Amino acid sequence: MHTLTxxxxxxxxxxxxxxxxxxxxxxxxxxNWIANLANISALLYHSLxxxxxxxxxxxxxxxxxxxxFQGLPACVRIPMGKGVCGTAASKREAIVVPNVQAFxxxxxxxxxxxxxxxxxxxxxxxxLGVLDIDSPVVRRFDDADxxxxxxxxxxxxxxx
Length: 160
Known about the structure:
Layout: H1 12-27, H2 33-47, E1 53-60, E2 63-71, E3 77-79, H3 83-91, E4 95-97, E5 115-123, E6 126-135, H4 143-157
Antiparallel strand pairs: 1-2, 1-6, 2-3, 4-5, 5-6
């Protein structure tokens, strides 16, 4: 059993430093990709304030398929280039969306979501999927979140 020791009240850089340490401890010595994705989605969901969904979509062909996550049931399939997840995957770059209502083609899987951040998972120049995190708060995510989550994704990719 793993006990979280995250102080959610810390400034973002310090919070993400703690999350990175916890993520490293969770995935150390574990090579099963799905197990690692499941544990990291739980870690992020329970460590980040003001989050209502945290999880992964895995690329199969030209479609992102929902993977391990925490939160309400999600959209199962997202075509490449569609919504925030498909756009981040096709552009191969993280996307921070301050207000999902203003994002052209946003796919509303949870009507409570107001902002979103998506970080693609790319290994050996191949897109494997994306990390997707939603919040019921407008402007919840920023560059500090992007940098912190890119660090978590990099740690995950080291196990793949």
